[in-house]
Design a protein that fits this description.
The protein has 4 helices and no strands. It is mainly α. The protein has one domain. Helix 1 runs antiparallel to helix 2 (41-55) and helix 1 (3-37) packs across helix 4. The relative contact order is 0.14.
Length: 120
């Protein structure tokens, strides 16, 4: 393995690590919000557990990060509505959704990196 490959890998891992916390925060916030809504610690704990397990399943994890990203796009749509018209809302929501998708993808890669076990 060349030095440049190692350097690129370390750089990518450092980048992904920054967004691992973002994905974890979204999982915790969703579980906390649902737990608060239902006034149930059990709902919070169960949803937190299920989301963490889903993060380890490739197809479920992709669906989860897409749903989180769409959520950010919807939030951006309504926030932008306070400052601009429909055209601005659409542009801002698309940009925020794509940005969130990129951040969540990096967070998902970080999650895969820390949970993978080398077979050597």
């Amino acid at each position: 393995m060349a030095k440049d490959d190692v350097r690129r890998g370390v750089t990518q891992a450092t980048f992904n690590e920054k967004f691992g916390g973002f994905l974890s925060l979204q999982i915790f916030a969703l579980a906390g919000g649902i737990g608060y809504f239902f006034k149930s610690w059990i709902a919070f704990g169960l949803l937190l557990f299920l989301l963490i397990v889903a993060l380890q399943m490739p197809k479920a994890a992709v669906v989860m990060i897409v749903v989180f990203s769409v959520g950010w796009a919807v939030i951006a749509f309504f926030v932008a509505g306070m400052f601009t018209g429909l055209d601005g809302q659409i542009v801002v929501s698309i940009l925020c959704g794509l940005t969130a998708l990129g951040a969540n993808s990096a967070g998902l890669q970080w999650s895969k990196d820390i949970s993978s076990v080398d077979s050597q």
